[in-house]
Amino acid sequence: MKLLTKFATSRASIGAGLIRLMVGSVFFFEGILKFLYPDALGAGRFETIGIPVPHLTAPFVGGVETIGGVLVLAGLLTRFAAFPLLINISVAILSTKIPILLGHGFWTFTLAKLPRYGFLSMMHEARTDFSMLLGLLFLLIVGAGAWSADTVLARRLMNREAAKTSAPTVGRQR
């Protein structure tokens, strides 16, 4: 219970809600798009990139992005939701941006056809990925913020703990 209270407690101001809105909406809509357009953004894209077992991994990733995005948007279990989304965005950077940086395929991942390759091209292509990575790290460190389900949850858990410690003992004399 105390671990959950600690994870739900946020040191962030109301401004963290803007970060949540950005991060949660990007992941939510990207997850939905993997299901709506599987050939272009789901299994078809995963196969092109070189991600193993694309017909299983794409729906799994789409589900993680959709559910994680909703949790981040609501500010519910935000720090817990940030972990799988951090893994998700790290794999996205590894599989699609590192080949652009190197200018050739990397591991099992293929190189996208672009006008140029190298550091600046990678930075251009990775702007959303890096924003999501930094936004998730921010939420992991400071929490969901003042206007979130986590804050409501933390208050309820703290009130419950306080009620337990201040409850009179029955049957014992002082």
Structure, explained:
By secondary structure, this protein is mainly alpha-helical. Helices cover 72% and strands 0% of the residues. It has helices spanning 2-8, 16-36, 38-41, 43-49, 54-74, 78-102, 119-125, 127-142, 149-166. Helix 6 (78-102) packs antiparallel against helix 7 (119-125). It starts with a helix and ends in an 8-residue tail after the last helix.
The overall pLDDT average reads 87
What is the gyration radius calculated from CA atoms? Answer: 21 Å
Order of helices and strands: HHHHHHHHH
Structural shape: elongated
Q: What's the end-to-end separation, in Å?
A: 29 Å
What share of residues are in beta strands?
A: under 5%
Q: By helix and strand content, what is the structural category?
A: mainly alpha
With helices defined by DSSP (H or I, 4 residues minimum), what is the helix count?
A: 9
Main sheet, how many strands, which sense, barrel?
Answer: none
Q: What proportion of the residues is helical, as a percent range?
A: over 70%
Report the count of strand segments: 0
Which regions are unreliable across 5 or more consecutive residues at pLDDT < 50?
A: none
Oligomeric composition of the shown chains: single chain
Summarize, please:
The chain is mainly alpha-helical and 174 residues long.
Provide key terms for this protein:
174 residues; mainly alpha; 9 helices; 0% strand
How are the secondary structure elements laid out?
Blueprint: H1 2-8, H2 16-36, H3 38-41, H4 43-49, H5 54-74, H6 78-102, H7 119-125, H8 127-142, H9 149-166
